[in-house]
Amino acid sequence: MNLFVCIDDTDNFDSIGTGELLENMMGEAAVRGLAKAGFTVRYQLFIHEDIPYTSHNSSMCCTAETEDLSAFTVFCEKYLEENSADGSDPGLCILTDSPSLDYSALISFGKRAQNEVLTKDDAYKTAAEFGSGLHLSEHGGTGGGIIGALAGAALRAGREEGRIKGKLQPLPNKTDWTLSSFAAVYGVERFTDENGSEITDDLPLKFVHPTKLLYSCGRITSVIIKENGTYMPKPKIKKNKEKNQ
What is the value of pTM for the model shown? Predict the structure, then answer.
């Protein structure tokens, strides 16, 4: 069975981030033979004074495969209860990935969560209307993380754009890159410029700065910029974090 697994609001200022917690949880699930996970996508949700969050109000969602949904769900619930940070409000969403399911109402909820303040009641109502194929649960504190967990799973199901967790590092002593060789090494499926226009030519590439990938149009995407006549993956610029509660 294919799934989308999303968690939200599991951290505090001193803990590991929600994305790292999700990857740790899925790593433990793999060790136990409960599931195999795909890459994790970060979805930015609405920033507003009425929404409690640690630093950026984002949810984290990965894909997964399991042969025992019940055992996997129980494991995830217990893992969040035992490993989420003090003071957090963890939420879990496990959504079946199937072409036979209509995700339109869920996707609408996810997009609303990126632009307005929603409540737990909104999340539970949306989940109930979707019916079977969706698990939504809270695991500490106010349980408000279910809002972001449902939103993130919905956005991933809709193949909406998000940022793939982690960054790519240049390979030492390799300078003869092209878009096709970069794609082969790093699993990139699509290239665009900064305006979102797709690049199909096999351009020469200079890769000297770390970069991050996007999940866009349902594909792993690299944004390519042109600087001083040279094409390169858009560098990941380190920014100072501003923590807001």
Answer: 0.89
